[in-house]
Design goal:
By secondary structure, this protein is mainly alpha-helical. 57% of the residues lie in helices and 0% in strands. The termini are far apart.
């Protein structure tokens, strides 16, 4: 016997690392990650940091209510 562990190859499910990482994050952490990605994506645009910060605050207010 092998210690009671017996899995055939057909029963092993492949997991996408991105899906796993997102599943262990809280909704607020997911939103933070999305904002970081968006910040990098819009880094070379004419938007100012203040524009992005204002947009982030507006979305967070809608998603979670006012910050304490």
């Amino acid at each position: 016997m092998n210690g009671g562990v017996c899995m055939s190859v057909s029963t092993i499910k492949k997991i996408n690392p991105e899906d796993y990482i997102l599943s262990v994050l809280s909704p607020e952490d997911r939103l933070d990650a999305a904002f970081r990605v968006a910040g990098e994506a819009f880094k070379k645009t004419k938007l100012t940091v203040k524009d992005v910060d204002n947009a982030v605050k507006a979305v967070r207010r809608k998603a979670y209510g006012k910050k304490k």
